[in-house]
Amino acid sequence: MKDKIKLTEYSKTSGCAAKMSPQALSRVLHQVDFKSGDERLLVGLDKSDDAIAYQFSDDKILIQSVDFFTPIVDDPYLFGQIAATNALSDIYAMGGRPLLAMNVVGFRTCLGEKVLAEILQGGADKVAEAGAIIAGGHTIQDDEPKYGLSVTGVIEEGKLLTNSEAQAGDFLILTKPLGMGVVATAIKGGLITNIKDHPAVKAMRTLNNKAVAPMQKIGVNACTDVTGFGLLGHLWEMAKGSDVEIEIFSSELPIFADALEYAEMGMIPEGAYSNKKHLEDKVTFIGEIKQNIVDILFDPQTSGGLLISVAGDKVADLLIELYALGIDDATVIGRVRGHGAKIKVSY
Amino acid sequence: MKELDVRGMICPKPVIETKKALEKSDKLLVLLDDQVAKDNVMKLAKKLNCQVTLLEDGNEYQLTIKKTDMVVEKQDESGGKVYFISTDTLGKGEEELGYALMKGFVSTLLEINPLPAKIIFINSGVKIPTLNQQAQEHLQQLVEQGVEVVSCGACLNYYGLTEKLEVGSITNMYEIVESLNTGEVVSL
């Protein structure tokens, strides 16, 4: 019998760890004149947000995002599901709902058409679950397989959630545990056998859609999704965009049970090191925080949870709603303390 | 020592290969060409309670990974010190007196609590485990009680004493520097 194809062997980095480093990207973007001076563009390049937002009518805002990456698991169907879940997440992080999606595919023909069909099926199933439609796509020949979506969403006027409106006094809620990059590295290293049922893989395949309705109902100040830049990277974008000081309670962080162990063993993706390099001077660690927790804080997440900044008098209501919808991992992980972009990690 | 070349391998393969190799051998030289892989392999070694020494040359790294046995771990817990002995006579003054004092010093090391974690002989210090017969006997007793006794290989070579080493093992500068860096050091 032919050996089963191991998709991850064709990629150097996997999942959101495959993101270009934030410093390098920022250097490049500064060299380009994007000529984007349209006032209907509510959220654009300058905001480092999850998606762009464009006011296309008086009462509706268009949200557009694209996200694709290299295989994070060997199973093509699972990879398709994870990549699509991750791409759709940007729309949810803005508080919107996805309408249309297009496949973005790089594929090595020798892997066989069946493998590609399974990847696309995984994506299609997630898009259908999200209530959106796959309307087309583009596929190129590529030695390193890649898959993701370009997603178009919509949101009503006044409901747009950005990562730049966190307010002093807010509580921060994270809706999925951390450690996906470390677990993905352990999967790549062959240390995890039952991949499909691993809690991190389940979380990566879980849409962030359910949290949107409670966020809109109760009203939150800011939201983003935690992906390639790690928790601290996305917190930094929130702290910088909102000009606030954020404190993270490291002992409260939800982390996949085995991820701490794998982190100690050196199953740390390269992206964690580049995230650390980029963020080191922006984060203050107070007291003795265990190295494996520090590593998890920089760990690039794939299809991570939503990071929500909500006012103190609403936090309990929001948690109750999130739990009622089965988002059991939602946890208060920190607080917005005051002004001046800064991150503190305390015990 | 077994050599493991993980150059050109993509993470986490270097970690996995090192882990596998350490299941088979107690001491390993790992060749790497990637900083992330190096950092990750060092984490693994630490997690497995191994002693690690790093030799760095641009983007090339050599890690010497040594499993530490139970005895050494026990000493670490008891807070034994590292004795760095770079002379064959103790103190300044008449050589004869210094020689006798060194004998006395080594024999007294047997009496202290906690025992030393490690005794490192360097430069003319290597004459003690090779030429000083009474000290040799005491050192042997220390080794039997779990104290690590090591002598600088290059120094033994220089004084033509390599063949005469009766007690303990030969070490290199990387291991010496690593020991000085990790333990509480008494220098003579």
UniProtKB/TrEMBL annotation, chain A:
Domain of life of the organism encoding this protein: Bacteria
Keywords: ATP-binding, Kinase, Magnesium, Metal-binding, Nucleotide-binding, Selenium, Transferase
Domain PurM-like N-terminal: 49-155
Binding site for ATP: K19, K47, S48, D49, D67, D90, G137, H138, T139
Residues the record marks as site: Important for catalytic activity: K19
One cellular-component annotation, GO: cytoplasm
Biological process according to GO: selenocysteine biosynthetic process
Residue ranges occupied by any PurM-like C-terminal domain in the UniProt entry: 167-339
Protein EC: 2.7.9.3
Residues that hold Mg(2+) according to the record: D50, D90, D225
Active site per the UniProt annotation: C16
Cofactor(s) essential for the protein: Mg(2+)
Database matches in InterPro entries: PurM-like_C_dom (IPR010918), PurM-like_C_sf (IPR036676), PurM-like_N (IPR016188), PurM-like_N_sf (IPR036921), SelD_I (IPR023061), SPS/SelD (IPR004536)
Catalyzed chemical reaction(s): hydrogenselenide + ATP + H2O = selenophosphate + AMP + phosphate + 2 H(+)
Comment on bound cofactor: Binds 1 Mg(2+) ion per monomer.
Keyword NAD assigned: no
Pfam families: AIRS (PF00586), AIRS_C (PF02769)
One annotated GO molecular function: ATP binding
Signal peptide: none
NCBIfam families recorded: PRK00943.1 (NF002098), selD (TIGR00476)
Subunit and interaction comment: Homodimer.
Family in the record: Belongs to the selenophosphate synthase 1 family. Class I subfamily.
Role of this protein: Synthesizes selenophosphate from selenide and ATP.
Name assigned to this protein: Selenide, water dikinase
Species annotation: Orenia metallireducens
Automatic annotation (TrEMBL), chain B:
Domain UPF0033: 2-67
Signal peptide: none
Domain of life: Bacteria
Classification via InterPro entries: DsrEFH-like (IPR027396), Se_metab_YedF (IPR019870), Sulphur_relay_DsrE/F-like (IPR003787), TusA-like (IPR001455), TusA-like_sf (IPR036868)
Pfam families referenced in this protein's UniProt entry, alphabetically: DsrE, TusA
Classification via PANTHER family: SULFUR CARRIER PROTEIN YEDF-RELATED (PTHR33279)
Family stated for the protein in its record: Belongs to the sulfur carrier protein TusA family.
Protein name, per record: Selenium metabolism protein YedF
